[in-house]
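User: Can you help me understand a structure? I only have the sequence.
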Amino acid sequence: MVDVGGRNPSEREAIAEGFLQMNPASLALVLEGKAGKGDVLAVARVAAIQGGKRTAELIPLCHPIPLTSLGVVIEPSSDGGGLRIEATARTWGPTGVEMEALTAVQVGLLTLYDMVKSADPAMSIGPVRLLSKRGGRQGDWQRHG
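Assistant: Let's start by predicting it. Here is the structure, written out as tokens:
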């Protein structure tokens, strides 16, 4: 692990997003709450939060971070071809929360896939990416385009 003991704590934030492409009929099942496994969006939101909170258990050499906030939004993607998850992770500490935001997105996407796979096994996940980060030694960063 990288030694972060000498770093000054600061407010940190990371925002990540990811997509699940699916056929229109499957998307309608999810949005209408008619999927066989229940409220897909609520379960995926909770799973994403749980995944983000457990990042250090899943990613080797990742520091356990006390999150001050982890928000998850799941909505239809702008192209109408599936769902988009956005996770915003925040902390006050000596290291960033990019991995927590990215892990939250990935776990949420995998949960969505699991809950809808019987209706649409051809779904695809991706891209998953960091949109922005704030705080820390390297300063702020934002994806362009």
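Now, to help you interpret it: The beta strands are 10-21, 67-76, 82-93, 124-134, 141-142. Residues 31 and 41 are 8 Å apart (CA to CA). Let me know which part you'd like to focus on.
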